[in-house]
Design goal:
Elements (H helix, E strand, L loop, with lengths): L4 H29 L8 H33 L1 H7 L2 H33 L7 H28 L8 H14 L27 H7 L2
Helix pairs in contact: 1-2, 1-4, 1-5, 2-4, 4-5
């Protein structure tokens, strides 16, 4: 079973978003930590706590995804042959979905408490947290939509030539023919007539031509 290229592309894209979001929330945490008001402002302390948790979850998830990706690359032939490669990629996508959701929520909480702190100068920590939240949520929603499409979207199979021939034969049988797909037995008077010619009746044209 071949690897699903779309899944690989989606995993790479969401992983890139995840790395960027983790970087932004880490920078937000550093900026909050440098604020002198953090020692006395409870909202800033909460913001700092959430940003620390977001950064930890983000970078641990990134490290685990990297290790898993390297393992899959090294043992790709064996996994490929066993048919596990696609399942592992899908599992990594699900893991990224959970991680990006967690980082997005914690980043949004960080931004919320920075805003509630009412400090005059938040050292651009609010902006960094907002960017991290947006990037994480975009990655989360993108992966979620992809999962829903894969689960619920079932493309209609194309009708093969053999299926079409079988339908014609069945229709001919119902009209009194021999079921061979030929119009030769629909009536002796039309035995040698070609569908679509001037001598062919209109109802035969409607069935076999249109």
């Amino acid at each position: 079973m071949g690897l699903n290229i779309f899944n690989i592309f989606l995993l790479f894209l969401s992983f890139s978003f995840f790395v960027v979001a983790s970087g932004f929330i880490t920078d937000a945490s550093r900026r909050i930590g440098n604020l002198p008001e953090k020692e006395t402002n409870e909202d800033l302390q909460r913001a700092y706590k959430y940003s620390i948790w977001a950064a930890i979850i983000g970078w641990i998830s990134v490290a685990l995804l990297l290790v898993a990706g390297i393992v899959i690359f090294i043992y790709s032939a064996e996994l490929y042959e066993a048919g596990f490669a696609n399942y592992l990629v899908t599992g990594l996508l699900f893991f990224t979905l959970l991680g990006s959701g967690a980082v997005g929520i914690l980043s949004a909480l960080t931004a919320n408490y920075i805003n509630k702190s009412k400090v005059d100068n938040n050292n651009n920590s609010y902006r960094q947290a907002i960017i991290a939240a947006i990037i994480s949520i975009v990655a989360f929603v993108g992966i979620l939509i992809a999962f829903f499409i894969k689960i619920f979207y079932k493309p209609k199979p194309k009708e093969s030539a053999s299926d079409t021939s079988a339908d014609i034969a069945e229709l001919e049988t119902e009209l009194g023919g021999d079921g061979t797909g030929s119009v030769s037995n629909l009536g002796n008077e039309y035995k040698h007539k070609i569908p679509g010619s001037e001598e062919t009746p209109e109802w035969v044209k409607n069935i076999f031509i249109k």
